Amino acid sequence: MRLVLFLAFALVSLPALAASGDLSSLLxxxxxxxxxxxxxxxxxxTVRFELDRDGKLVGMPRITxxxxxxxxxxxxxxxxxxxxxxxxxxxFSDWQHAVVKLSIGD
Length: 106
Description:
By secondary structure, the chain is α+β, with helices and mostly antiparallel strands. 30% of the residues lie in helices and 35% in strands.
């Protein structure tokens, strides 16, 4: 069985931006560097979090979805460990409220 990490990302407060994919790609790349699911971890979760202008978490990330405890913990750890996020400051209103979908499948 091949383990595949799938990072899908949506920004909650996007006003119809044609270039929103570039922001999702920037954040996904940063999170993927810190994402190390535990062996045997499985599932899919959505992690919601707020960022300040410096790319640091504001409060605790919130997680929903069905996943093993190792998967959920790995998702939260990745979001916490990868901060501060490096995103374009002039687009703060576009990435301030983030939603990241993480899943493992074959």
